[in-house]
Amino acid sequence: MVLVDAHASKDGINDGAVDFRGNPVDKSRTGGWLAAGLILGTEFAERVCVMGISMNLVTYLVQDLHIPTAKSATIVTNFMGTLNLLGLLAGFLADAKLGRYLTVAIFASITALGVILLTLATTLPRMRPPQCSDYRRQHHQCIEANGSQLALLYAALYTIALGGGGIKSNVSGFGSDQFDTSDPKEEKAMIFFFNRFYFCISIGSLFAVTVLVYTQDNVGRGWGYGISAAAMVIAVAILLGGTPFYRFKMPRGSPLTVIWRVIFLAWRKRNIPYPSHPSLLNEYHNAKVSHTQRFMCLDKAAILEDYYSASGNKDNPWIVSTVTQVEEVKMVIKLLPIWSTCILFWTVYSQMTTFTIEQATFMNRNIGSFIVPSGSLSVFLFISILLFTSLNERIFVPFARRLTHNAQGITSLQRVGVGLIFAVVAMVVAAIVEKQRREAAVQQKTKISAFWLVPQFFLVGAGEAFAYVGQLEFFIREAPDRMKSMSTGLFLSTLAMGFFVSSLLVSLVGKATNKSWLRSNLNWGRLDNFYWMLAVLGVLNFLAFLVLAMKHQYRIQNYNSSNVKGENEQNDWNEGITSEIEMKEKAEGKEEP
User: Fold this and answer.
1) Beta-bridge partners for 476
2) Which residues pair with 367 in a beta bridge?
3) Which end of the chain is least crowded, N or C, by CB within 10 Å?
């Protein structure tokens, strides 16, 4: 996290950067913009690969491999969900053992291998079923790709998911390691680094959904994915070539280890009676976080058994936890109810990469003689995200500050709530548009313009500008001070679960409706009903979120506001938090999503 890194160095937590030989860094020869610039190339290539695949994969699965639309959507959402979930694993490995540089280098190489495999899977003729005429397609007589033909495709996708997740969770942190935040000049440069990081992500995403998607549809999938593979291979070569110029931070352990250890010890000691008073718990009087009565079952992890106390194992973390560690785990658990209500937003977002793209293939995509590729319509999603991110900083937040007299403008949970409302409205609009599209196709034998899909892209993008930043800010501010990296983990897990929930809903709807809603030929299905269902679920989810948000008590933030200077510092901090979170965490995260 940006703010964590910035403050940690002042406490001496992030000191001790070394060069590639293990010696103390020479600032004139390592780090800074040269090193950071080389790292930016890796993230640019990752965005080109992941966005170029996810935003147009469903059309390849349906049109070339003749896989049913619902199954194709599930393949895409499972791929994206796995990518975000594996980011947690890579983050753990980097924190606990490998360090960020080695993790990024390894997983970037894995991504390059995966895209090369995907290029082969989409190029080799024997990896595709026989071509299907329009007549056979309309009557569901196309031969679907078999298991052996899909094997290489699946291997490629999940290799990319493994590599992309590793890059996503570590590359921006490795970039921030190139700046010494105890040096005012380098601390300022680090903020500009995140601006440039976000710029690279935006450019990479826009390049992927325009140039690469057009190449895939009109020149060939092999060429489109081949360009992505070449970009990733070049990025890996540049990353490795810059090794002498980097600054390295040694791994210091993962907060996930503390969480699992506390839970394990509490379970192992579940039959031990509670002590007569909490002060008898391990390190009670030296706790950095006050003891609370909630989730008391976890307190047993801090009970020091007499046998181990006599044998001098008081400091063994696998024998007994401290009260501080137990309370920090309680703080993380306290965030889970809010976390669970953030998932459905990403379920809605996942429709923009699956069914909405497939809708476009049944609509008029002509601009004069030029046919817009279906996947390229997602450019409106990214334009909306960029627009509302800018409007948030320049208009909405300053206006909210004046209205609420709160330096933060609107709270992080209010941001999330606004994003959830946008998601519900987007699904209502999507359902109405799909109903009109299907009626025009079936009754009038005409195709309405694909640009009727722009409003739902626009609304989901606007919602992401609020929900994405709100979630990150909430997890950053509410996570324990010593577990700030958990905020990235919690956020990535909401993305992953959102995509997996989409897959689950598609499967359940298919069984419940005997596949009558989600058909390969959308003209014969009722996709609008699926969108209405998501809108209803969104309303119920929002109501649950509202109840939880109203009950939530924010952690007390220790700001020095006893004088004018203190108030200015508080305002500066609050003005900076959203900008920094948006620039860095938007970079880590998506995928988008």
Assistant:
1) none
2) 370
3) N
Give first-to-last CA distance, the chain, whole Å: 17
Q: Check: CB of residue 84 under 8 Å from CB of residue 233.
A: no
Q: Give whole-number Cα distances, 237 to 53, 61, 192, 360, in Å.
A: 22, 32, 25, 38
Please tell me the predicted confidence (pLDDT) of residue 411: 81
Q: Provide the H-helix boundaries in 179-241.
A: 184-207, 213-218, 221-241
Nearest Cα neighbor of 69 from 520, 523, 526, 524 is 520
> In order along the chain (593 residues), what is the average pLDDT of each group of 10 residues?
35 58 80 86 89 88 87 91 87 82 92 94 87 69 84 93 88 82 74 70 86 89 91 93 88 80 90 85 82 86 74 74 87 88 94 90 88 88 83 78 74 89 95 92 89 93 86 78 68 89 92 86 89 96 93 63 39 42 44 42
Bridge partners (DSSP) of residue 449 are 364
Contact criterion met (CB below 8 Å) for 434 and 525: no
Q: Which two tokens stand for residue 361?
A: 């293939």
The residue among 484, 101, 86 whose CA lies nearest residue 258 is: 484
Q: Are 74 and 511 in contact (CB under 8 A)?
A: no
Nearest to 472 by CA among 584, 565, 355: 584
What is the Cα–Cα distance from 57 to 84, expressed in whole angstroms?
A: 17
Rounded-to-5 percentages of helix, strand, coil across the chain: 70, 0, 25
What secondary structure letter does DSSP report for 300? G
> What's the Cα-to-Cα distance from 484 to each of 8, 213, 265, 328, 336, rounded to whole Å?
10, 37, 23, 11, 15
Taking the alpha carbons of 445, 447, 452, 453 in that order, is the dihedral positive or negative? positive
φ/ψ region of 370 (left if φ > 0, alpha if ψ in -120 to 50, else beta) reads beta
Comparing CA positions, the residue from 82, 73, 53, 55 lying closest to residue 493 is 82
CA distances from 289 to 187, 275, 283, 292, 325 (A): 29, 19, 11, 9, 9
What is the C-alpha to C-alpha distance for residues 304 and 340, in angstroms, rounded to an integer?
34
Shortest CA distance to 83 belongs to which of 42, 57, 115, 50? 50
Contacts of 50 by beta carbon, 8 Å cutoff, 6+ apart:
83, 160, 164, 208, 591
Per DSSP, 210 falls in state I
Map tokens 């590599």 to a residue.
163
Q: In whole angstroms, give the CA distance from residue 313 to residue 484.
A: 28
Backbone angles phi, psi at 217, to 5 degrees: -80, -30
Determine the pLDDT at residue 576. Answer: 44
Half-sphere exposure of 59 (CA within 13 A, CB side): 26
Contact 437, 322 (CB under 8 A): no
